[in-house]
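Exam revision sheet. Question 4 asks you to relate a sequence to its structure. Input first:
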Amino acid sequence: MLPKRLLMLMSVAVVLACCGQIASAQVTLTLWSELTMDVHRDYYVNEVVAGFERENPDIKIEVSFKEDLNQALRTAMQAGAGPDIVYTPGPSFALEYVLADMLLPLDHYAELMNWSEKISGWALDLGRVDGKLYSLPLELEAMVLFYNKTLFEEMGWAPPQTLEEMEAIAEAAFEMGIIPFAHGNNDWRPANEWHVGVFLNHYAGPKAVKAALKGEKPWTDEEFVEAIAMLNEYMQRGWFSQGVGNYYSLRGEDRWSMLASGEAAMIIEGSWAMSSAGEYFGPKAGTDTEWDWVPVPVFREGVEAPLYTIGMGSTISINARSPYPDEAAKFIDYLFADRQRAARWIYDQGAIFNNPLPFEPTDFPADMEERWARFVSDLAAAVSGGNYGYTTWTFWPPRSDVYIYEGIESVWSGELSPNDYLANLDAIFREEIADGKIPPIPD
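Answer key, structure tokens:
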């Protein structure tokens, strides 16, 4: 029989060992995000991440915010590092990391956690490459037409439903010294592709765009050339912030301040802006104006309306080198597991937290902001009906996507014709098709 003192020492050792095991079971996951506004960053940390940590006290999430997330990711992951939980700016960006074997296949977790029952099927398919699931899409978004509602009422302008109505407003505004469209790219050069995507889809039509994305027709077809020529005409007429010079100098806050003050009439931008428009309008912003939105009109007869050019502003994956894939999968599941919780995030912060879930009207609080509620319901109806276009950052392969927003500047400067610009795009696109770098295209 062991002496009592020895038994006590052994008991203490066991307790200390157990405590050590408990302490070592505390897992810290790293996560990088590109959220830019303090209000969104604070909400993400204090509500989304903190809510997960409360439900999973053995997992800690360490969040870092990056201004140029994709560049930071590329540098870190090529060096064999990077965060455990990998956010990218969209499926075409995620594809780069899949092809470099940097992301972990998620099929096991998808089956284990029933993601096919939680996430809209067409959206889930956006993360599949060669039949395997590597990413889940976040922030379902669409390009819409924002306008200064107060200015429109003062001028007697109705929200445009057709191209003719939109151009009539643009012409009238321009003649009065009001900027028709407050556009610019000083703080985000890829803003160029917002406009390229809208004009391709709303002029040529989503069926033509889809056929080209599947390699069934070239980007040099007449309807695409005419779409880019139309975009260039808007720029040359000064409808986009009075021309290229101003366009390149304007940041997001400049453009939205111009819209709120009535210096500009409209902005074509993604639905993510609904989350921040309130920063510029209304008493809190020191203005007496209000904003609203409508779908961007179609630009040609035969293209069905209303049309939403949709995209995913983000994807989420697991770093293939993460030592904690199970814990990372738990966090990913948390984002999709509860529709009412996800609806609350939209209610609190707007469209930037709009995850692709099969929401029901009863998921949302009864007093949800009307403009956000209308967007979520109208977009869901359009997508379920198959009437949607394709944003470049979601559905184009990586090199083609970069050329789209860099090359269009040569069209605006007169160095390239619309046809030459599209011929260059087509050549790059064909190479990426041959390399298997085309993101999934939903039916």
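Marking note for examiners. The chain has two domains: 28-140+311-383, 141-309+388-434.
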